[in-house]
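Intended use. Records like the one below are meant for learning the mapping from a protein sequence to its folded structure. Do not use them to infer anything beyond what is encoded.
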Amino acid sequence: MSYYRILGFDKEPFSTSPDPEFFYSSREHERALTNVLIELRLKRGLSVVLGDVGTGKTTLSRKLIQDLKMREDCLFHIMLDPVFESNALFLQSLVRNFGIIGEPPAQPFTITELREKLERFLFQKGIVENKTVILIIDEAQKLNEISLEALRVLLNYETNQFKLLQLVLLGQSELMQTLRGIPNFLDRISFKTLLSPLDYTEMKEMIYFRIKQAGYQSKMDLFLEEALREIYQFTHGYPRKVTMMCHRALKEMLLKNKLVVDREIVKGIIEDEVHAGWQTADSLLQKSSF
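Structure written out for the chain above:
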C-alpha cells in the first residue's frame, strides 16, 4: 500500500507533477493567471510570465489550459520544449501541431509557404470562425533569437481591433535579458510579471491546501509549526522544493512510527541533503521590472 493511503489520503498530496487540481493560487499566481486570461479574452497578443526554477510556472500553465478547455471559442497548443535549429523547423512544428497540414508533403514547404499557411489559418480561425488561437510556450528561455523573430512576425498578423495569435511565454528569469536585447519584441508585450517564492504564510496555506485536495479528513495536523519553520528556512518558499520536502517528511514520519512531522524529522532530512552534497546555495529571485 502507498504511504499516503496509510495516512488517509486518496491521492499523493505532494507529487511534483504539474496537476492543476493541486495548483495553490498564491497572490502572485492568482494575479498572473487572471491577467493572462484577461489578455487572451481581449486578444492583446503577448503575455510573459517569468520565475526562477520551482516557482510554479509549469503548474500555472496547466491551470491555464484547464481553464481554456472550458471555452469553446479557444483553440490552443502548448509547446513544452521549444528548441529548434532553424526557422523552418520551428514553423513546421507550429503548422503540424495546429493541424494545418496532414501528411508531410513530398517536398518540404519553404519558409514563405509556411508563413502563408499560418497566416491563412489565423485569418480563418480568428476572423471567419471567431476563435481565439493561443500558443503557450513553457521553458521559453530555451527559445533562440531565430524562433523569437518568427514569433514576432506572427504577432504582426492582426486586424484593426485585435491580434490573430495570442502568445503566452513562461520561462526562467534569464529570458528577461534575452528579451531586453530584442526591443521590437519587447515592446509587443502586453502583460508581464515575475513570480517570486512563497512567503511563510503562503507556504503553510499551500501545504494545507494540498493535504485537503488529496482527501485528508482527519482533524489532526500532520506538521508541527516547528517543522514548518524548518521547511521554510531550507526551501525559501520555492513551491517545488516545499512539495519535495513534505513528501520526504511524511515518509520519514511513517518509517519512524511517529504521528506527526516534527523538527527532528525535517532537520534529519536536511542533514542528509547536506551530507550527500545535494544542497546548493540558492539566491532568492528578486522582483524586477522590464
